[in-house]
Amino acid sequence: MKRRPPRPFPALPVALLLVAMLAEFPAHAQTATDLNEGLCLSANSATPGTYEVSWRGRAGYTYFLQRSEDLASEWGYFPLIETGRDAAVRYGFSTPAARIFVRLRLLETTLADPYGTDSDGDGLSNQEEFGLRTDLFALDTDLDGLPDAADAFPLDPSRQSFTGTLAVVLFMPANALVLP
Ligand SMILES: [Ca+2]
Ligand SMILES: [Ca+2]
Question: How many Å lie between the centroid of ligand 2 and the Cα of residue 134?
Fold first, then answer.
């Protein structure tokens, strides 16, 4: 993977990482045929804890950027969805984590309403799943049997609390013997 030299950029808290810059790649930059869309993560040595992530966004593709601090726990999402435009996509962010890893998930299509779309059909929009920190591509993020939209604790499989309404219908069997 070819790496771009670190460039200074303003330190931003993770919650405000939505500072996207679209620019045409110079000739030496990564291309979509590179591994993982030419995804690069560069640390800003001048400002510890600040990074720039970039990749080649292909037209007709939709990108979701994920992060992990240790590769052992679940991957989380940056709260952004990027529609490829055959151009570079760059984001700057800061984090207090000692290490940070990033990866892309992509759809080979574009979405008319990326944030309003429910990508996994669990009843929650992508925007709502960003807020809940659930997986945009899993009906049941914590695998406890309750879909994310009905799970009061969608990230904790040890706590099962149904948030919907249970419909209970009582009926009398045709051969029932009614006692006095
Ligand atoms: Ca969803
Ligand atoms: Ca669940």
Answer: 9
**Structural domain count of the chain:** 2
Query: Same domain for 130 and 105?
Result: no
Q: Minimum mean pLDDT among 20-24, 33-37, 55-59, 154-158: which range?
A: 20-24
Cα angle 134-79-67, degrees, rounded to a multiple of 5: 75
Q: Residue 74: give the domain boundaries.
A: 1-110
Q: Is residue 180 part of a domain?
A: no
| CA dist list (Å): 80 to 91, 96, 105 | 10, 20, 12
Please tell me the distance between residue 131's alpha carbon and the centre of ligand 1 in angstroms: 11
Rounded to the nearest angstrom, the distance between the alpha carbon of 153 and the centre of ligand 2 is 7
**Which residue carries 């303003």 as its tokens?**
10
Report which residue type is found at 49: G
Q: Which CATH number covers residue 85?
A: 2.60.40
29 and 76 in one domain? yes
Is residue 23 situated within a structural domain? yes
Q: Determine the distance separating the centroid of ligand 1 and the alpha carbon of 144, expressed in angstroms.
A: 16
pLDDT, tens digit (0-9, with 9 covering 90-100), for 139-177? 999 999 999 999 999 999 888 766 666 566 666 777 777
